Amino acid sequence: MVFHNTLSMVRKSMTKFWTELGDTGTYRRFTTGMTIGHLVLTITFITLALSGFALRYPETWWAQLLFHGETGLAARGIVHRAAAVVLTGIAVVNGCFLLFTRSGRKELACLMMRFGDLKDAFRNVAYMIGLRQEPPKFDRYSYIEKFEYWGMWWGTLLMIFTGFSMWFVNIFLKYLPKIALDVIALIHFYEAWLAVLTIVVWHLYYMIFDPQTYPMNWSWITGRITIEDFKERHPLEYERENPPETKEAE
Question: Containing domain of residue 192, as a range?
Answer without folding.
Answer: 21-241
